[in-house]
């Protein structure tokens, strides 16, 4: 309540703010958020890379819609690009040619749009892995993890629909693949295909239909998810790595106003600038060289954009199984990859829930873990990435063959075998590396840092001088928590009654032992150990 | 050559098929090609055949047989015609260096004059496609756009949209067309070297070959325009994805490290 | 699984105390708290701060110049101007100039702001307390009570008829939306089973648009054909060619291993569907010595000398063959449609 008579008029800015506050309640919002603290770490900015490339995609996308005609009507090309003059093409392709060759700056915006899309997806992948490997998905952030995962998943399909819009020979081949995959769906496949394409492939409808999905439906959902994702980041406050003064109950860093306003705001311009420069120097999806789509033409090296490369790999290396029974065909050769693709993605999406079930830990966690301190999770993550990367290799098997002078068929067989074997090897190796690093940390805590100075003792022995760590460093290396492996309660309780233990609980305990049992983590040094060593032989 | 004879053990069974294929191509070509125009100076011709035979017995006979009849190491050359010789020797594929899935392009070791003599000799063994004249293969005035359409129908499936090459089965590949001369492009379509199918004039007339050559020259040569910038090998999404990860995301992470890093503290004086 | 069932001792020792809210003097691992703030050179040396200020201003100025450059490039360079720039090659001058100037204009705003934040804004680290997400028991109790009151007032639990009919109405109403989707496309019927090919249609060479004669097709050559009467300008060309495209090769009859294939050929000239049976790419990477044909999309490999059976890759069945002959004018003609659906397999294919 302000007094009616103010002695002095407030400055204009304040009056505007007052006006807005009276209607929007901005002071209450600002009170909580204006000096919000963000911790400094480069890996915490990966999400910003995604956010900004998403904004760039929206900005450039709006520009492109002003020139793009989402129509499959056939026209003859009369534009300036000589090698296509007189060719028949859809209006979608023709208008994309127009954007690329006749609209000043159109080519630049198209390239920024497409490069930003590739970087958006790559950024989301890396961001997701950062969150995964530091355990930042744990309570209270599980839902935000799912939002992020959904963004990645929808991003793939937004990308795919956008990639298909110019109706060029490469993307048309991709759409043809999609149609073939839909046909393989049992019972309803042919119906789905007819409905989606408005009849037989390619028909005259899919560009317009993909267009509304690409510019409205999918980005609309994504925008909502992005907003929700950001609100939750604000509400939860960012995770931070353990260190002196950085606990589970606080967040240490710089305030939003002014430092993060400048840093995060500036980073938007940096991201946009970098992508604009990339679009200036590197061409992407040169549809003029690819040519208009015709279902009877094709080029070798027909691949989707990288984020669909994993699916492409699955479909390429799958053996051609097909079952014909009672007048029906079960196209396993296409259906199985089609099912593995979401299953592999779902495996990473549901992981947080599995881990929290295994640990039984219901507390909030705000300290980002070092990957080595969660060896089983880290090993699982690396195994997952390995499977993903091997399928990316499979998706580019023809280019591997030509560029490394290998046989296409051998690469395919390699991928078939290592899709199963690779993750196992990666799991075992990663776990051992993590444990090795844990041992090294323990060694460092107990014996200090290797200084590189070699000292000769009076009796002739050579020793390396170890410098003791600072207390801050000691704290940092011992701040992580370690679970004790779970045990099943005794089969008979104290009253001699047989205890009922469910099968799920048995499984949980078994998994828990695998996670935190004797060989799965190195017990962190205790104060007693430390004191004993420090007092015993301080020189060591 | 010595290297060749040292490696002559390899049984190139598949090339027996080439023998049949090329012989048939040549035979058909001879049957339908306009006959009897090259009787101009017979003496110069027979001289070239004579010289070619000498070169042949030194460089080629060890695999293809003394009379071009073929051995286990090399197919018969009867009826392959001068165009095949001009292509194979003119691109350095022949003489072959070692057995493998496919004989690669190498440094050319014969002069054009010697190649012409060799070609004249091989052509004398049996009628086959004749080395094209410049009038046949010169892309001057050809329809580039029509060539593009033909290229996408007939060629792109193996050689990629703009002729960057691609993989075939078991280590074989369709080579890149970058820097391949119009004559050799023409001869390749005419004769179908190694595993490439032929595109004889009966199904792809001379004019269409010219269109294709004009298209390849327009999109895959030093003179080709890449308005968007680096063409990244012309390989499509795989190299684009790699570029986005390494240079795009790489640069952004480098920037992020700078943004998030703590500023240097003043040293204690 | 509720948290009560997890024995407390299996959880790590209280994370809150481990992080040393209270500093224990003789615990060497205890949290020493935030280290004291150390000043940057800009904090103690005004000249250094000035230098930073100038650097920031310089970057903002560069951005302004770059924007001017962007507008100038837009005006100066014709849209079709190609220039050679090492190592990019022959690129569009306009695209290059616009991209670099726009990039610089944006980048230097960002770089200036970040440099400003890093060198001149306070770099004292501040700690913010966290609060648990879950509401306090009092809040929860109040919400539960409010909900119970609201639910009771609605009569939802009591008046089952209202509740049930409402659920019924709500679950039925989306059906209208689904019904509306029906006209997105026709029913499949036999569409995927038939192509334009019928008995007597000549095979038209796609290069020349002329009918093919058997003599035209040499052993080792590759030709693509479409049915007579189809033209690129037809409205349904794309849809029809997607099923009717043919790949024509000639194999020495004695090399053809499959009896039916030889029977359906004309003197070794065989016509196979160009559409891959995997997911429909136009397959046509024909190796004339091995008679293998490879799909460039997913590497299914078919042996054209053996009934086009699959010898590698993800395709599930052989390429359909079109039975051909020669008509009285001496041209190749189809002797009917394919006897099986072309292209990818589907449920009703059988």
UniProtKB/TrEMBL annotation, chain A:
Pfam families: Cytochrom_B_N_2. The keyword Transmembrane helix applies. The keyword Nucleotide-binding does not apply. Residues 16-242 form the Cytochrome b/b6 N-terminal region profile domain. Its cofactor is heme. The chain crosses the membrane at residues 44-68, 112-133, 145-165, 177-198, 210-235, 264-285, 330-354, 374-393, 413-430. Signal peptide: none annotated. It comes from Streptomyces tanashiensis. It comes from the Bacteria. This is Cytochrome bc1 complex cytochrome b subunit. Its EC number is 7.1.1.8. Keywords: Membrane, Transmembrane, Transmembrane helix. It is an enzyme of class 7 (translocase). It catalyses: a quinol + 2 Fe(III)-[cytochrome c](out) = a quinone + 2 Fe(II)-[cytochrome c](out) + 2 H(+)(out).
From TrEMBL, chain C:
The chain crosses the membrane at residues 55-76, 96-117, 161-181. Residues 238-333 form the Rieske domain. Its main location: membrane. Pfam families: QcrA_N, Rieske. Keywords: 2Fe-2S, Cell membrane, Disulfide bond, Electron transport, Iron, Iron-sulfur, Membrane, Metal-binding, Oxidoreductase, Respiratory chain, Transmembrane, Transmembrane helix, Transport. The keyword Disulfide bond applies. It comes from the Bacteria. It is a multi-pass membrane protein. SUPFAM superfamilies: ISP domain. The keyword Repeat does not apply. Belongs to the Rieske iron-sulfur protein family. Iron-sulfur subunit of the cytochrome bc1 complex, an essential component of the respiratory electron transport chain required for ATP synthesis. The bc1 complex catalyzes the oxidation of menaquinol and the reduction of cytochrome c in the respiratory chain. The bc1 complex operates through a Q-cycle mechanism that couples electron transfer to generation of the proton gradient that drives ATP synthesis. This is Cytochrome bc1 complex Rieske iron-sulfur subunit. It comes from Streptomyces tanashiensis.
């Amino acid at each position: 309540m302000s007094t009616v008579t103010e002695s002095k008029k407030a400055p204009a800015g304040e009056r505007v703010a007052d006006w807005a506050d009276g209607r929007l309640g901005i002071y209450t919002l600002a009170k909580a958020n204006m000096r919000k603290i963000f911790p400094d770490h480069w890996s915490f900015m990966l999400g910003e890379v995604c956010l900004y490339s998403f904004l760039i995609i929206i900005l450039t996308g709006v520009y492109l819609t002003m020139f793009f005609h989402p129509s499959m009507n056939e026209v003859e090309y009369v534009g300036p690009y000589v090698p296509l003059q007189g060719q028949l093409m859809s209006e979608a392709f023709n208008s994309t040619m127009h954007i690329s060759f006749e609209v000043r700056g159109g080519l630049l915006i198209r390239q920024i749009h497409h490069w930003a899309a590739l970087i958006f997806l790559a950024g989301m992948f890396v961001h997701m892995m950062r969150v995964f490997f530091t355990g930042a998905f744990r309570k209270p952030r599980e839902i935000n993890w799912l939002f992020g995962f959904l963004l990645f998943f929808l991003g793939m399909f937004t990308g795919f629909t956008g990639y298909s819009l110019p109706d060029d020979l490469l993307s048309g081949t991709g759409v043809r693949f999609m149609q073939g995959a839909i046909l393989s769906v049992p019972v309803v496949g042919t119906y789905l295909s007819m409905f989606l394409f408005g009849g037989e492939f390619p028909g005259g409808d899919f560009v317009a239909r993909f267009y509304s999905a690409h510019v409205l439906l999918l980005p609309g959902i994504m925008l909502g998810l992005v907003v929700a994702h950001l609100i939750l980041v604000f509400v939860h406050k960012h995770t931070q790595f353990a260190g002196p003064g950085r606990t589970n109950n606080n967040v240490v860093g710089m305030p939003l106003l002014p430092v993060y306003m400048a840093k995060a705001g500036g980073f938007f311009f940096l991201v946009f600038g970098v992508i604009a420069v990339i679009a200036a120097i590197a061409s992407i999806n040169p549809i003029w060289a690819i040519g208009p789509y015709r279902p009877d033409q094709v080029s070798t090296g027909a691949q989707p954009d990288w984020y669909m490369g994993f699916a492409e790999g699955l479909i390429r290396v799958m053996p051609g199984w097909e079952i014909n029974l009672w007048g029906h065909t079960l196209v396993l050769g296409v259906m199985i990859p089609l099912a593995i693709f979401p299953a592999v993605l779902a495996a990473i999406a549901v992981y947080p829930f599995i881990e929290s079930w295994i640990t039984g830990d219901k507390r909030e966690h705000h300290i980002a873990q070092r990957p080595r301190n969660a060896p089983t999770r880290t090993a699982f993550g690396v195994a997952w990435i390995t499977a993903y990367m091997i399928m990316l290799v499979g998706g580019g098997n023809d280019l591997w063959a030509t560029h490394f002078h290998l046989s296409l068929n051998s690469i395919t067989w390699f991928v078939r075998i290592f899709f199963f074997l690779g993750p196992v090897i990666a799991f075992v190796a990663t776990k051992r590396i993590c444990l090795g690093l844990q041992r090294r940390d323990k060694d460092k805590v107990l014996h200090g840092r290797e200084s590189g100075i070699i000292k000769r003792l009076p009796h002739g022995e050579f020793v390396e001088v170890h410098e003791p760590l600072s207390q801050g460093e000691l704290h940092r290396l011992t701040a992580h928590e370690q679970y004790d492996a779970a045990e099943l309660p005794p089969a008979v309780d104290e009253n001699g009654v047989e205890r009922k233990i469910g099968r799920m609980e048995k499984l949980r305990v078994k998994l828990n032992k695998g996670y935190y049992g004797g060989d799965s983590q190195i017990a962190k040094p205790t104060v007693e150990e430390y004191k004993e060593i420090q007092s015993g032989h301080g020189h060591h | 050559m010595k290297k060749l004879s040292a490696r002559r053990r390899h049984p190139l069974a598949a090339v027996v098929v080439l023998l049949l294929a090329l012989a048939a191509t040549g035979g058909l070509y001879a049957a339908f090609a306009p006959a009897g125009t090259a009787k101009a100076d017979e003496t110069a011709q027979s001289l070239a055949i004579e010289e070619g035979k000498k070169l042949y017995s030194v460089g080629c006979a060890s695999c293809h047989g003394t009379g071009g009849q073929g051995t286990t190491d090399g197919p018969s050359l009867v009826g392959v015609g001068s165009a095949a010789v001009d292509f194979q020797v003119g691109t350095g594929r022949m003489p072959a260096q070692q057995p493998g899935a496919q004989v690669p392009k190498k440094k050319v070791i014969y002069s054009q004059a010697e190649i012409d003599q060799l070609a004249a000799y091989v052509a004398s063994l049996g009628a086959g496609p004749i080395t094209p004249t410049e009038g046949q293969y010169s892309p001057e005035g050809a329809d580039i756009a029509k060539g593009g359409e033909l290229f996408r129908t007939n060629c792109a499936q193996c050689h990629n949209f703009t002729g960057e090459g691609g993989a075939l089965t078991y280590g074989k590949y369709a080579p890149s067309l970058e820097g391949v001369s119009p004559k050799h492009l023409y001869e390749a379509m005419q004769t179908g070297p190694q595993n490439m199918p032929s595109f004889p004039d009966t199904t792809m007339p001379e004019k269409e070959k010219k269109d294709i050559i004009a298209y390849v020259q327009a999109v895959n040569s030093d003179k080709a325009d890449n308005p968007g910038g680096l063409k990244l090998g012309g390989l499509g999404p795989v190299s684009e994805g790699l570029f986005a990860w390494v240079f795009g995301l790489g640069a952004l992470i480098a920037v992020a490290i700078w943004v998030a890093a703590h500023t240097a503290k003043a040293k204690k004086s | 699984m509720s948290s009560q069932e997890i024995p407390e001792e299996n959880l790590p020792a209280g994370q809150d105390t481990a992080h040393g809210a209270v500093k224990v003097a003789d615990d060497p691992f205890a949290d020493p708290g935030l280290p004291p703030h150390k000043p940057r050179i800009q904090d103690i040396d005004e000249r250094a701060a000035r230098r930073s200020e100038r650097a920031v201003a310089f970057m903002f100025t560069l951005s302004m110049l770059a924007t001017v450059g962007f507008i100038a490039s837009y005006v100066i360079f014709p849209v079709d101007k190609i220039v050679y720039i090492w190592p990019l090659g022959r690129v569009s001058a306009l695209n290059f100039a616009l991209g670099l100037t726009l990039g610089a204009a944006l980048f230097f705003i960002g770089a200036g702001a970040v440099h400003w934040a890093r060198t001149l804004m306070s770099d004292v680290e501040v700690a913010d307390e966290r609060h648990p997400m879950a509401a306090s028991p009092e809040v929860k109790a109040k919400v539960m009570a409010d909900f119970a009151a609201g639910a009771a007032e609605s009569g939802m639990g009591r008046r089952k008829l209202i509740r049930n009919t409402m659920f019924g109405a709500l679950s039925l109403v989306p059906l209208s939306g689904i019904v509306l989707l029906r006209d997105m496309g026709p029913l499949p019927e036999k569409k995927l089973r038939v192509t334009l090919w019928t008995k007597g249609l000549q095979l038209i060479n796609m290069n020349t648009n002329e009918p093919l004669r058997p003599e035209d097709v040499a052993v080792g050559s590759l030709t693509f054909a479409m049915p007579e009467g189809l033209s690129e300008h037809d409205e349904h060309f794309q849809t029809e060619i997607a099923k009717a495209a043919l790949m024509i090769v000639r194999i020495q009859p004695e090399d053809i291993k499959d009896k039916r294939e030889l029977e359906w050929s004309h003197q070794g000239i065989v016509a196979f569907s160009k559409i891959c049976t995997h997911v429909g790419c136009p397959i046509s990477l024909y190796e004339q010595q091995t008679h293998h044909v490879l799909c460039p999309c997913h590497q299914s490999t078919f042996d054209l000398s053996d009934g086009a059976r699959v010898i590698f890759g993800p395709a599930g069945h052989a390429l359909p063959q079109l039975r051909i002959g020669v008509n009285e004018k001496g041209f190749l003609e189809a002797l009917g449609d394919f006897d099986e659906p072309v292209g990818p397999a589907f449920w009703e294919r059988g």
